[in-house]
Design a protein that fits this description.
This protein is α/β, with parallel strands linked by helices. The protein is built from 13 helices and 15 strands.
Length: 504
């Protein structure tokens, strides 16, 4: 157990707003259960659900079962014990009286177990449109006066800079920056920590992260699944993953080494990177939308506008690629290419740092643009590897691409999932992998111009086939920007080039 208090006199209340939604059942409760199962959830933790839908613990636990990863022989007794700590509260997000009821429910558990101190975490797994009502009511009715309070905010954080600023103001008036956790549940804590160790503790990489050595950086988030529900049609692919998850990855790759291990020093360095990124315009963007490839037998694997929940005239992009430029001494002239898409050929999240080619034709008589790459893969599995040129087997001195894996095997170590680790960070007050509100403000400054143009002008996206690698114009733009593709993503030589899409 975590050493929260030597006398075990501290209660923790973890409140999940929007508990009836998919996020709570598929992510939050499985992570809480994993911490409880492994004896890592702080002692005295009580979990509360708050939703407009009336929930009962007995029924709710059954809805969560498919996502909990249970082992019946080992977990059943402890699983039953976990649910004795869950309490359901029904209420309207704008009704102050319902927050009084929530506060009383938390206070009852705290006094029932004779706890002297009471800490409270409020997790907002709900649409941003109701954030203001919730934060105001939490401040007035539910804050603990005998312990700390923390609020966890799910993406997306607004729609653009205009809608985000009043939301940021309201949030910061209700909670201090040290209490606010803008969570990114896609982020791999272990991979990013390994990146920091690799880069800042090894001269070979610390001296090479600059525009003298690096040609381009590409951050990719691909998902082979199609869009589910009408939520996506409101926000689109850029707001869904780029203005939070992918930009956080970018800042962690591009930041300078902090002066100390202090969390705020790290967040300051990330903020400086964002301040130096130039504002995007539409010439920096390629948009795409998946269409029916007429090869799938699954009736759900159709074109985006063929889903029953999507308008037939929708121009919402399901694929986007943007080319960002960082205007500072370290990264000037190095393109940072972000690309993300739904219904693609695979599910993958990775950062690909591509080094400049060696200026020598000794082993490269065909004068190919051969480059080394440092690859940080976050999904579907975690690894860090280098792509290098080594000699092919045989007598002749010929080169071949080789991967050198540098990721330590941690299977023997007891560790939590990324999401559970982030929840544990919230309990411990560690904000290292959570964005500050001013970081998010800069991200909206970078993206709002193109987002407003997409919303108002409704440009027609390039089409790409369901299950393909995306639209051809995205590959062309990436190459014009300075990135070199290798097999299997060399669209020039691929046999299924036509499956990548067509220009409109």
């Amino acid at each position: 157990m975590l050493p929260i208090d030597p006398q075990n006199e501290t209660a923790h209340s973890f409140v999940v707003f929007g508990a009836s939604g998919r996020l709570a059942k598929r992510k939050i409760f499985p992570a809480l259960w994993a911490l409880y199962r492994d004896d890592r959830l702080p002692q005295g933790t009580k979990i509360f659900t708050f939703s407009r839908t009336k929930l009962h613990v007995s029924k709710y636990r059954l809805q969560c079962v498919p996502y909990m990863g249970l082992s019946k022989e080992r977990d059943q007794k402890k699983y039953n014990s976990f649910w004795t700590n869950v309490h359901c509260v029904q209420g309207e997000y704008g009704n102050a009286a319902d927050y009084v009821m929530l506060g009383e429910a938390m206070a009852l558990q705290e006094t029932k177990h004779k706890m002297i101190y009471a800490n409270r975490i409020f997790y907002l797994a709900i649409p941003p449109i109701v954030f203001d009502n919730i934060t105001l009511n939490l401040m007035r009715k539910c804050k603990s006066h005998k312990g700390w309070n923390r609020i966890v905010i799910e993406k997306p954080f607004g729609r653009n800079d205009i809608t985000y600023r009043p939301y940021q103001l309201n949030l910061c008036q209700s909670f201090n920056e040290s209490q606010i956790y803008l969570i990114d549940h896609y982020l791999s804590r272990k991979v990013m920590q390994n990146l920091f160790a690799l880069r800042f503790a090894n001269r070979i990489w610390s001296d090479s992260f600059n525009n003298n050595q690096i040609a381009a950086v590409m951050i990719t988030v691909k998902n082979e699944k199609h869009v589910r529900g009408d939520y996506f049609n409101i926000y689109g692919i850029i707001r869904d993953v780029m203005t939070n998850h992918m930009m956080q990855l970018l800042t962690m790759v591009a930041m300078d080494q902090p002066f100390s291990n202090d969390v705020e020093e790290m967040r300051n360095e990330r903020y400086r990177v964002l301040k130096d990124i130039l504002t995007l315009d539409m010439t920096d963007v390629i948009l795409g939308q998946y269409r029916n490839n007429f090869m799938e037998s699954d009736p759900e694997k159709v074109g985006y506008t063929e889903h029953s929940y999507i308008p037939t005239d929708s121009l919402t992009p399901t694929y986007a690629m943007v080319v960002l430029k960082i205007n500072n001494k370290r990264w000037s002239d190095v393109p940072f290419i972000l690309r993300a898409g739904k219904a693609m050929n695979e599910t993958k999240t990775e950062v690909r740092i591509q080094y400049k080619s060696v200026e020598s034709d000794l082993y490269n008589p065909n004068e190919l643009d051969i480059r080394n790459e440092l690859v940080l893969r976050l999904a579907p599995y975690e690894e860090i590897f280098m792509r290098v040129q080594l000699k092919k087997p045989g007598e002749e001195l010929c080169l071949q691409d080789t991967e050198i894996n540098m990721y330590m095997n941690e299977k023997s170590l007891k560790s939590s999932s990324n999401y559970a680790s982030l929840l544990l960070d919230i309990f411990n007050g560690n904000q290292e992998f959570f964005m500050r509100t001013d970081e998010q403000c800069e991200i909206w400054r970078i993206f709002s111009g193109v987002l407003n143009a997409i919303d108002v002008e409704r440009p027609k996206p390039f089409l790409y086939d369901y299950g393909s690698r995306g639209p051809i114009p995205a590959y062309r733009k990436a190459e014009r920007s300075g990135f070199v593709f290798f097999a299997p993503e060399n669209w020039h030589e691929s046999k299924d080039t036509l499956a990548y899409g067509e220009e409109q």
